[in-house]
Amino acid sequence: MDPTLVQNLAILVLAGFLGFVVISKVPNTLHTPLMSGTNAIHGVVVLAALVVLGLGVEGVFNEIILVIAIIFGTINVVGGFLVTDRMLGMFKEKPGATRGEKEAGR
Asked: How do residues 74-86 score in pLDDT, each as one tens digit?
């Protein structure tokens, strides 16, 4: 087995474990904004995948993997913005609501 493959798999496993530990320590009130921000940062990954695909990679398998990465990354970015928009919508004042309804959260 190739030693770089073993090293890369070890890094992948450790990164997954570290990500799980870090996210599990985040309080519920901060989870949505944190995930929305990290999903938006995923746009950098999508951009990099587009650049690599545009430069021309060798092999059909590599192209398929890149296209799948671009699709999943785009879904992640759009989802992050939708979640952020919905979260911010919860704090907007509803038109026509009386003061008592605003205080009661209706």
From this structure: 888 888 788 778 8
Give how far Cα 40 sits from Cα of 16, 55, 64, 101, Å: 19, 24, 23, 34
How many other CB atoms are found less than 10 A from the CB of residue 94?
8
Here the tokens at position 63 are 């192209």
Predicted local confidence at residue 57, as pLDDT = 78
The stretches of 56-98 forming alpha helices (DSSP H) are 60-89
How many whole angstroms separate alpha carbon 2 and alpha carbon 6?
Answer: 7
Residue 69 inside a domain? The answer is yes
The residue ranking higher by pLDDT, 105 or 72, is 72
Q: Residue 87 is part of which domain span?
A: 28-94
92: left (phi over 0), alpha (psi -120 to 50) or beta: beta
Number of domains forming the structure of the chain = 1
